[in-house]
Design goal:
Helix content: 25-40%
Structural class: alpha+beta
Strand content: 35-45%
Order of helices and strands: HEEEHEEEEEEEHEEEH
Shape: elongated
Number of helices: 4
Largest sheet: 13 strands, antiparallel
Distance between the termini: 29 Å
Length: 329
């Protein structure tokens, strides 16, 4: 019986030992994915800021500028693209809405971001746009991959419509989490006007053609990213925009359209950190807790099997030294 039990334990030990790497390297990449219907809202503020008064075309310092960013999963579009792409796809319809201290719109830029639900790599399909313009993204945007690495990534800049490296700058502590800090600097670049702007009597889509005045932009982008989920827990930008040349400025070379240090509002940082802390436990379950747990279980079963096998092979005492068996009357 001991021999049979030890064989069963050895078989179970082999099964659990094989299951451990399968959970980590086979099951996790296929099970971990972004849900297609996710909705997220983020509020960022620049306090104080410099903002262009489009009525007088003069730059003024204001108390604050607010940027509301929303990400909404488009389930219907993702299912449509999945049928042709043959893989799990997420479609995010996002909106960056900028408003001045009076609550009035300064600009708004919609985006459609299409990406692989598992790897966060862009998926090129019809509808991939920024402010209505077709784009072809390279690299990531909004979110890093699960199990983020200590390396540089290509990050898509919606203003410039191009991708550039975002550099890993080291590991830091943020709200009790070990996070990776990334930086990206976009040098002064000529960029399109947002199609919706508060410019009286002028169509923003033809503004540059009508006046010859161009829009330029630079930013230093900073992210603190949880390496387990790949989700940013904080983000900041030192952002500047200028209008240059043309007839719109009345002979001036340039004027500041917006300048400020944009930061996430503290209450949104708190809610984001709490959400990430809960989600990272699910990722750790598949990448660490379960694989190591079944591996240790397999080792324990193998040890128990060896003990039983050793006992089964222990020599029995000679017949004349055994105690006599009792026979019932």
């Amino acid at each position: 019986m001991r021999r049979r039990a030890s064989l069963v334990l050895v078989a179970l030990a082999v099964f659990f030992a094989a299951l451990s790497p399968l959970l980590r390297w086979y099951a996790f990449p296929r099970l971990a994915k972004i849900p297609p219907g996710q909705y997220q809202e983020m509020v960022l503020e620049a306090k104080p800021a410099t903002l262009l008064d489009y009525g007088s075309l003069t730059a003024k310092e204001v108390e604050k500028v607010t940027i509301v960013q929303t990400l909404k999963g488009n389930v219907e579009e993702s299912e449509k693209i999945e049928r042709s792409a043959g893989r799990d796809v997420v479609v995010w319809d996002s909106l960056s809405y900028v408003q001045g201290p009076d609550g009035k719109m300064v600009s708004q830029i919609p985006e459609r971001y299409i990406f692989d639900a598992h790897s966060q790599a862009p998926v090129h399909a019809t509808g991939e746009t920024v402010d209505g313009d077709a784009v072809r993204r390279e690299g990531i945007e909004f979110k890093w991959p699960f199990l983020t690495e200590k390396r540089d990534y290509q990050y898509f800049d919606a203003q410039a419509r191009t991708s550039a490296p975002i550099h890993y700058m080291g590991t830091q502590k943020f709200r009790g989490l070990d996070v990776y800090y990334f930086e990206q600097t976009i040098p002064w670049t000529k960029v399109p006007y947002p199609k919706k702007m508060p410019i009286p009597g002028i169509d923003a889509t033809t503004l540059e053609k009508q006046t010859g005045t161009t829009r330029w932009y630079t930013t230093k982008r900073m992210f603190w990213v949880d390496p387990v989920t790949g989700a940013p827990v904080n983000g900041e930008e030192i952002h500047r925009e200028e209008l240059r040349g043309g007839t719109l400025l009345g002979g001036r070379d340039k004027v500041t359209a917006f300048a400020g240090h944009v930061k996430m509002r503290p209450d949104y940082i708190d809610s984001t950190v709490e959400l990430v802390k809960s989600q990272r436990q699910l990722v750790l379950l598949m990448t660490s807790y379960l694989p190591w747990g079944v591996f240790v279980l397999g080792g324990s079963l193998l040890g128990l099997a060896l003990v039983l096998e050793a006992r089964s092979r222990r020599p029995r005492a000679p017949a004349d030294e055994r105690e006599p068996e009792t026979v019932p009357a």
